[in-house]
């Protein structure tokens, strides 16, 4: 059943995310998205380029805001311990507030355009690298001996948070 009538591109992207999460990307149609968004087929094309474009926009929605907040946090004057706590909190808040986008992006990676997939993978590697460096900084500040590779720990932690 359709929710409130979509009036912006962001509304349509959100409606598409709900449809993709429920039916899967391949099984979803533009008509399904129109129904969820409460708009007609001719109207939707005033806001979007294609179904694939919608999926690619979800990648940008997930990555851009989180990247900006992570960079602000990592360049702050907080101690490594405080930064780790803040990064964990930020990831949880982001995944919770954008859970439909997260589920869609992670679940539909094979359907992304090549450009969006490259962008998503690059973003993911950067986030993992930055978190691994933060973990290494924490170990040095606490004079802890590494018992595991920082990148492995970063991957495990970020995967758990996502």
Provide an overview of this structure.
By secondary structure, the chain is mainly α. It has 8 helices and no strands. Helix 4 runs parallel beside helix 7.
Could you give a quick summary of the protein structure above?
The chain has 162 residues and is an all-alpha fold. Helices cover 73% and strands 0% of the residues. Helix 1 (9-23) packs across helix 6 (99-107).
Rounded mean pLDDT is 91
Structural class: mainly alpha
* Percentage of residues in helical conformation: over 70%
Overall, the morphology is: elongated
Pick out the low-confidence regions. Answer: none
Radius of gyration over C-alpha positions, nearest whole angstrom: 19 Å
What is the N-to-C order of secondary-structure elements (H for helix, E for strand)?
HHHHHHHH
Defining traits:
single chain; 162 residues; mainly alpha; 8 helices; 73% helix; elongated
């Amino acid at each position: 059943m359709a929710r409130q009538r979509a009036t912006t591109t962001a509304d349509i992207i959100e409606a598409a995310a709900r449809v993709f999460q429920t039916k899967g990307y391949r099984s979803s149609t533009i008509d399904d998205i129109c129904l969820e968004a409460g708009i007609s087929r001719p109207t939707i094309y005033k806001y979007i380029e294609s179904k694939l474009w919608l999926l690619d926009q979800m990648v940008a929605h997930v990555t851009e805001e989180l990247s900006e907040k992570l960079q602000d946090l990592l360049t702050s004057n907080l101690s490594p311990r405080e930064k780790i706590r803040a990064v964990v909190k930020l990831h949880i808040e982001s995944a919770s507030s954008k859970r439909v986008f997260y589920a869609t992006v992670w679940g539909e990676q094979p359907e992304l355009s090549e450009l969006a997939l490259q962008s998503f993978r690059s973003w993911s590697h950067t986030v993992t690298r930055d978190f691994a460096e933060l973990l290494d900084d924490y170990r040095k500040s606490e004079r802890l001996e590494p018992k595991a590779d920082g990148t492995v720990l970063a991957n495990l932690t970020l995967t758990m948070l996502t």
